[in-house]
Amino acid sequence: MKQSEALFDRAQQLMPGGVNSPVRAFRSVGGTPLYMDRGEGAYVYDVDQKRYLDFCNSWGPLILGHNRAEVNQAIKQVIDRGWTFGTPVREEIELAEMVLSRLPHVDLIRFVNSGTEAVMSAVRLARGYTGRERILKFSGCYHGHADYLLIEGGSGLATLGKPSSAGVPEAFAALTSNVPLNAPAKLQRYFEELGDQTAAVLMEGVPANNGLLVQETDLIHLLRKLCDQYGVVLIFDEVLSGFRVPRHTAHQYYGITPDLVTFGKVIGGGMPVGAYGGRDEIMRQVAPLGPVYQAGTLSGNPVAMAAGKATLQIYFEEHVQDRIMALGQYLDSCISPLCGPTSFGYTRIGSLFWLYFHRETPPLAAEDIVEGSAESYARLHRFMLKCGIYLAPSAYEVGFLNAAMTEADMDFFVDALGRYLELEHS
Ligand SMILES: Cc1ncc(COP(=O)(O)O)c(C=O)c1O
Known about the structure:
CATH class of the largest domain: Alpha Beta
Radius of gyration: 21 Å
Bound molecules: pyridoxal-5'-phosphate
Number of strands: 16
Strand content: 15-25%
Order of helices and strands: HEEEHHEHEEEHEHEHEHEEHHHEEHEEH
CATH architecture of the largest domain: 3-Layer(aba) Sandwich
Distance between the termini: 27 Å
Largest sheet: 7 strands, mixed
Helix content: 25-40%
Oligomer: single chain
Structural class: alpha/beta
Mean pLDDT: 95
Strand order of the largest sheet: 4-12-11-10-9-5-8
CATH topology of the largest domain: Aspartate Aminotransferase, domain 2
CATH superfamily of the largest domain: Type I PLP-dependent aspartate aminotransferase-like (Major domain)
Number of helices: 13
């Protein structure tokens, strides 16, 4: 802790809040952020050389765990030849082929540098394609930090959204509406009022940025039907859910065909990557084929493409999704006896899990998360750090399993949870 504290003191003189992404500052769990020094498999080591079982996985990309040898090698091999040219490179074709061969509904793909950029570009494309401006999203879903996506629901259903960040113009908010998750009647009403003015609906493949709010299949199918009926582009944002849920993507899990899909995280293997793709007819609107402009100095750079390709190759060859599913089922069976309204609840899909508080059943909408959850989580988080377990520093973030984790790691985690409950109830 000592060295992390010293580094954080220095950082606060240099960067807003000492960090380059707000949740890293530990504000909602208290204490000093840990500075990580290295990672190996399921574990990370901080600068004081304390070891932690890591459920953050760099916020999701590290589906194989830390520093997997083949990915490390793939990155080094590229770097030895020079790492960026600003020209097309072979690696982008190889990654595109790998992704498209597994996703029958995606005809063309464009790589960018982050999930935010992917969603931003997909929304522009949907607007260009439909000639409409309005978009709909769901409360509690996060799609990156573009102006018109940092919007909360306004007072009325189909009324204007309001900015959830300073600096976002009201005029942008006016084009974004929110409806709650798990609310089919409200969704239907939105379409009746504004469907024919709407360019796109954005749905997080599995809402996992404000708790893990896995939606029922019926709602997703209703959404697809309404989008068809009103000529609205359905964008499935799979930045987080991509290659982390059964059948690889949430749209395949639910058995629907979105018009556009966005990716990030796993497809870059831990390097900065995003991507958007979809139906040929829509993707052909993107420059240089069509009038929708989108570009990037480092888009498709060979280092990120090689890291993504090496990661996905192992993911498919070693049936990582199936293996993690089995590990997840083991975790379910160990955790369930500890769960209850006076301890915590637990929910999981694929390699994503979440601990929630003060409820009998998992919430399905942001509005159902019980107040006071953040304080309960903060106590748990502090205890886990002492035990050598690194959970995301926010009650609303999910935990990530990876292919390097074992049943012994799950036992270690569950044992610590048991000790935490004894302490809480003593
Ligand atoms: C569903 C979803 N979309 C978009 C983003 C933004 O991605 P990035 O942080 O790479 O910009 C995230 C980030 O967590 C996400 O989970």
